[in-house]
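I have a small job for you when you get a moment. Would you make up a two-line entry for one protein for me to read? No commentary is needed, just the two lines. Write everything out right here, beneath this request.
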Amino acid sequence: MYRKPSYPALTLKQFMLRKQVLKLYRDTLRSIRQVPDRDSQLELRKWARQDFENNKHLEEEITIKMMIKHGERSLKELQQSLELSK
């Protein structure tokens, strides 16, 4: 028997923000895979996972957008560092 989820449906804005967050998370993990040192990869993956976990309770749109921008800047810095190390 199919049971309806007990959580409310997302609004369009919430859905779009969720999509952005998931894309940022995937892009971050993809970039981390390019780090040559395996131990550094594991540490960065742990840091990224923890950072997203710590913020998953956020509900205010402006706060979520601010955190997305912060994450995008961090990802860009990581990607630039990887480019410089090649």
